[in-house]
UniProtKB/TrEMBL annotation:
Organism: Melaminivora suipulveris
One Pfam assignment: CoA_transf_3
One GO MF term attached to the UniProt entry: transferase activity
Protein keywords: Transferase
Protein name (Swiss-Prot/TrEMBL): Formyl-CoA transferase
Amino acid sequence: MADAIPAAAPQPQGIAPQALAGVRVVEMGQLIAGPFCGKTLGDFGADVVKIEAVGEGDPLRKWRLLQDGTSVWWQVQSRNKRSVALDLRASEGQETARRLIAEADVLIENFRPGTLEEWGMAPEQLHAANPGLIILRISGYGQTGPYRDLPGFGVVGEAMGGLRHLTAEPGRVPVRVGVSIGDTLAALHGAIGVLLALYHRAAHGGAGQVIDVALHEAVFNCMESLIPEYSAFGAVREPAGSALPGIAPSNAYPCQDGWVLVAGNGDSIFKRLMAAIGRPDLGEDAQLADNTGRVARVVEIDAAIGAWTAERRVDEVLEALAAARVPAGRVYTARDIAEDPHYQARDMLLTQRTRDGRELLVPGIVPKLSSTPGAVRSSAPRLGEDTDAVLVEAGLTQEQIALLRSRGVIR
């Protein structure tokens, strides 16, 4: 496990310069999609200024399990950010936000389409003051189209994108993946868009642009052969539980003390798998030499594997399959991850100190760059903790800041 990260500190001595050092990001989103994108950019050196509503701030501060009154999820989602509490519904708050955006490289927002325009922050207005600005807009259905104005959350995007229909056992209710995967996929697509736009701006004359990410489109982009199969064959892919339809064998199999995932779908891997479970007859069967033949007899193959795993413990199965060079793994819980030596060896478990002085185990940084790696430079801020410092950087005087505070525009 990596050493503890201080609550707020500059980049540690000896750490290589980060890829996005010097990039200023203003984050105006809340909850998951926009802020996850901001977190991703912040992990790689961007200076992320998060604008939150005065009062309660980002609702994520109170989501799921709380420690000292604050969500532990917040500690991950908002590391490497500075918090400015600002009333964007007030004209003075909007003007203050425009001043911050005028000095930024990137603006992230995930409000309902049209909200920026209502606040006098339409892209053309922001570009007039800051031509190089990159504006990332994440919404349920995008900034155009007939569904543009409908309310959209990640779960709806997962359904419309085609994912939710497949996440079920055949004939049973579609279930959610277990995390907010629609929001996260949109955030990652947004981060890719920002990086592409930054590259284009640097290489082609300094112009900014608008990035339009819809939640359902980000999900749909990951749906593999779903539409080509429908187009070519009229095939509507249906739920298949833990199996991978059309690829065999690849499934979850019961053990005496849990489940294992086994991916034996390579031709040579399949032969090694069958030898390992004592079924060389299947491994040498000419009909099962390629994936097409195995798919036709997948029920028989799954039954053979399941009969073998059911007589053994998970550790026994994994040891035997590792020796046979067959991809397999246990179904990890949070405890499994926290105690796993491979996670620890690759710095995927960091001990981060909160602003209240508590130490908290948090996920590490992905991806891993050899020359400009990511780093946790500071832990998640308290609401409005950086308001004064950021406004001073934007050119406001102490008198102006005091006036805004007296009027309830900032906190």
